[in-house]
Fold these 2 entries.
Entry 1:
Amino acid sequence: MNLIIITGQLGAGKTTILNNIVNTLPNIKTSIIINEFAVIGVDKESISQKVEEVNAGCVCCSKGEELIDKINELSSKSKLILLETTGLASLGQLMKVVSTTKAKIVNVILVVDAYSYKHSKGFSQITKQQITSATTIIINKTDLVEKKVVDEIKKKLEGKEVIIARKGKVNYKQISKKHDVKVKNETSFMEKLIPELKLDKESKHIQKAQIKSISYTTKNKISKFKLENFMYRLPKEINRAKGIIIDDKTYKFNYSSGLFFIEENLKPRKEGLIILIGKMSRFQKLKLIAKLDELTGEKTTVLDKIKSFFE
Ligand SMILES: Nc1nc2c(ncn2[C@@H]2O[C@H](COP(=O)(O)OP(=O)(O)OP(=O)(O)O)[C@@H](O)[C@H]2O)c(=O)[nH]1
Ligand SMILES: [Mg+2]
């Protein structure tokens, strides 16, 4: 069974691209796994096929065991697995994890956000690391930048297989070439001694990045205009938000790189979900929950506050 990894920074367009790939798949039995950093995931709402979820952590470390079980479980019914990871995944570590399963990695796709590249004037450290492990790089959101920005990114990726995408439009054929993906499988002396270290030590990359998330649910109606206002007032460290709200209809919203989008969600829902992701201390998390309470008219209980403080 073949497996394709799709990774890239928060909000780069991974799920949008994944859905376009899913919609152009030939007749191959395919399973989709999405790994989201937040406790409750929302990406599956955007995919036209059934999605298996691994949430509340990163599949390259704390959620490695769960991913291994999921892949092995799917191997009897699928010929291909498409795996979307969180943007924080350490690709080297993730590839090691997948190499212990029945799946063979045939492509490691990195989605690069041209708009965010332009505004942060270059690649982040983590993107630079991911570029070295990726076998295909998709330069996405090229509809939001000038040609010279795309040319500059292309130049930095010389020697790599590159696909240029607008609005996440990529089809299966473009990414179907099988690559000889090499997995470095060295195990350190300490890992041999204490096997648990192998998965756990890398979760430090999340702690180091200080990235946390809030998954906030509400049955209350929220005005989409108030929500938009709320997003534009978020502290700059909260650079990603997404979810579903119920106003006059059910809406799906996305906030990334300072841009807010909201559209009708085709599947109606009884409960809204707001996910905030970014660098935040535990106390900032509580402050944001209080702000969400103000926005939604909910009153988060002390117990729930304590729970999210330690999450
Ligand atoms: N203009 C433009 N918007 C895009 C493009 N690709 C994705 N988007 C929008 O960017 C937002 C985030 O897209 P997603 O596909 O959810 O990004 P993601 O990488 O899966 O996000 P996470 O899983 O949260 O890291 C959504 O509002 C998309 O509609 C693109 O090429 N151009
Ligand atoms: Mg996604």
Entry 2:
Amino acid sequence: MAPRPLSSVAVLLLVAVAAAWTGGADGCPASDRAALLAFRSALSEPYLGIFSSWKGKNCCSRWYGVSCDPTTGRVADITLRGESEDPILARAGHSGGLMSGRISPEICLLDRLTTLILADWKQISGPIPPCITSLPLLRILDLVGNRLSGSLPADIGRLSRLTVLNVADNQISGTIPSSLVALSSLMHLELSNNQISGTIPTDFGNLRKLSRALLGRNRISGVIPVSVGHMTRLADLDLAENRISGDIPASLGFMPVLSSLYLDSNRLTGHIPAALLASRGLSILNLSRNAIEGEIPDVFGYRSYYTALDLSYNQLRGSVPKTLVTAAYVGHLDLSHNHLCGAIPAGSPFDHLEAASFANNDCLCGGPLPACR
Ligand SMILES: *[C@@H]1O[C@H](CO)[C@@H](O)[C@H](O)[C@H]1NC(C)=O
């Protein structure tokens, strides 16, 4: 059957829809285009030449990394990743690119922006423009893997729609703004590997939607707020390699979905809460390199499933918990560099562990260590 010619009404409709999709015949508004060009002129990316596609009137069409809201024709999304699977980067023969320069405050003129991803370019420096907090629709702010400095904007809490805040692997300093806990939509918070100091806000637990909080490798001090234990969606908490002191709040043992907890290399003291070790769902617990004392609570059971349990380099006393043999699974176990004593229980998981897991204690004996006498 021969293709039927489209009726003129259908053609007109198609033209109208196409025009709406591209934001009209002129493309994006001149003000959005000007803001993008100002943003681009503060950056330099000489290797891949991605900005060479930023030409012509219509910034909503074929400008690499830019996309617009189809109904308003306004710029909604800037996604530029230095290390990506993107075929354009792959064809250029680069596993990753370099971009230097700064983030121009003119980005804040793109007041319909929902996503700003400027990730893994290694060399972008300068501050996060404080005016970024005036972008009312911003949902994703991902600036990981650059050399950004300065502090997080004090009024970051204004970004009421923000779901992802990732500034990990930069040189951000200053403290965690107290307004951060007002980010009621926040699901992912990644501040790891910066120079952030000060304390974790006491009401951090107000971040009810948060599922990952990665704050490791900073200079954070003070205690772990008790409110953290009231976070019902938090699955991954990383506070490793900071200067956190005080006790581990017992409330952490009652978190419904906590699955990984990294508190290693801090200044924690006190005892390990029994509820924490017994908590089901927790599969990675690293408390290594603190000053935790007392006995290891003997509270493991058939619901215990640990891919990694590292309690090494503390001041733990007493014996190796006998209930560990009842655990459903214990993969990696490290109890070394403590003051444990007595016989290592027989059976799984102890039959697959190496002597290094028990090294440098006071008087442990039995397989995999030499027999007790
Ligand atoms: C736990 O943390 C210590 C110190 O930060 C680190 O050396 C060790 O590899 C970690 N253990 C696991 C199982 O990740």
